[in-house]
Amino acid sequence: MIAGNNAERSPYDQLFYLFVIGAGVVVTCSRRINWKRVFAANPALVTFYAYFAVSILWSGDPSGSMKRLFKDFGQLFVIAILWSEKQPLEVIRSLYIRCASVLFPLSIVCDRYFPRIGKAYTLEGEPMFTGVTMQKNTLGEMVMSLGLIIIWDLIESHKAGLTLRKLWDRYLLLMMGLFLLRDSQSKTALLCLLLGAVLTLRRGRLASRWVSNAALVTALILPYIVIFAQQYRSLIAPVVEAVGRNMTFTGRTDIWQHITTHTVNPLIGAGYWNFWGGPGGRAIMVAMNTTVPNAHCGYLDMYLDGGFISLMLLGILLITVSRNLIRKSTASQFYSLRFAILVVAIIYNMSETTFARLTTSWFTLLLALTEFSSATAAANGTFSINTDQDLAGNLTSLPTTRAASPGEWFS
Fold first, then answer.
1. Residue 293 has pLDDT above 70, yes or no
2. For a designed S-S bond to 275, which of 116, 270, 294, 353 qualifies (C-beta 3.0 to 4.6 A apart)?
3. How far, in Å, CA of 1 to CA of 135, rounded?
4. ∠ Cα 85 86 87 (to 5°)
């Protein structure tokens, strides 16, 4: 695997991204989504993307940064299409479950019968189980993101009165996901999936605002403790060792030690997704005598991309949205799920980089972060979606509906 930002890109991949974004633009235009209202409802997210758009001006590779930002921002068009459906929650559930129904079994098949596809090797020559992805941590991230939606779907399906016998396919997918996490040894993803499940399933006093605020504050403090792990060694060592890791976080701290206030401009960084393909990233690779694709920490990569300003904007985005979700968490199960996804993302990015990257977990986080109070129009008439009002109405219909099972797709 070629590291940094210098990896050769397949022209087929580029055409695929262009087609998806172009199709998204066409569909959102045909549904007459009011983007002014969307942007007004998401000021923190708009500011976050706007800053990285400006960071292209001081990027060492302006063209590369612009292309990556365009593809990342293009995910919002896909999300807008999902929210503009008449039953957006049903569509979201079906989308994730159908993806899991294809990717989970295919990953197991690749591992068992096509090891040249389903396995790869680390730089030290050790085999790792990758499934349909290119790296074991990417596989773990995919399972974690899809698994959270499967758990949510199971909750809503049981509320609808469906029995275990009718939900066997969901439980089978969940078991497949746990099997993939075990085989890939992606323990961070496993812990985050379990944490997300607990936050989604909690009831009674555990679902109170006080508990939610405590979970949020703890999650926000943890990245600081982990990045400065040596200073807090006695505090976190038992927890780290309990999950089968050491205090180097599988070599991640060696990378972190090379990232200081002198690595990039501490205020504005090196420009969006530009550092590891530039002279700064190459200098760290030479110093470590190994290939380094990223900082293996979403917060440090945000710092490298946009300096302390980007970290501040990220913090504002996460805190603003989380506070809003906490206030509404008792309104529906979906708000509890969104809060769980946000907390999981905060913790997962302590040891992996997914913030503002084309990954499954970032797309899922954008689904949780974005409020779509946009006017839309269907081909047969105009209707509107307001996430604060219409979602409640949508959820009341869930006892009579559920996401289609794999066997029902073509019936």
1. yes
2. 270
3. 9
4. 90
Whether the Cβ atoms of residue 269 and residue 276 lie closer than 8 Å to each other = no
153-171 exposure pattern, b = at least 16 Cβ within 10 A, e = fewer: bbbbbeeeeeeeeebeebe
Six token digits for residue 206: 């555990």
pLDDT band with cut points at 50, 70 and 90 for residue 394: very low
- The values of phi and psi at residue 378, to 5°, are -90, 165
d(CA 265, CA 270): 7
Instruction: Please say if the pLDDT value at position 227 is more than 80.
Output: no
Q: How far apart are CA 300 and CA 296, in angstroms?
A: 8
Interatomic CA distance for residues 244 and 272, integer angstroms: 34
Q: Report the alpha-carbon distance of residue 199 to residue 347 in Å, rounded.
A: 13
Average pLDDT rounded to a whole number, residues 60-84: 90
Q: One-letter amino acid identity for 222?
A: L
Report the alpha-carbon distance of residue 241 to residue 235 in Å, rounded.
12
Per-residue CA distances from 300 to 235, 255, 286, 291, 332 (Å):
22, 10, 19, 17, 34
pLDDT at 254: 84
Q: Is the dihedral of CA 196, 202, 207, 210 positive or negative?
A: negative
Residue carrying the six token digits 């087609």: 19
End-to-end CA distance of the chain: 41
The model's confidence at residue 248, banded by pLDDT at 50, 70 and 90, is low
Residue spans of the domains in the chain: they are 11-408
Is 272:68 a contact under the CB 8 Å cutoff? yes
- Other beta carbons within 10 Å of 36: 10
- Most confident of the ranges 114-118, 120-124, 170-174, 275-279: 170-174
Band of pLDDT at residue 235, cut at 50, 70 and 90: low
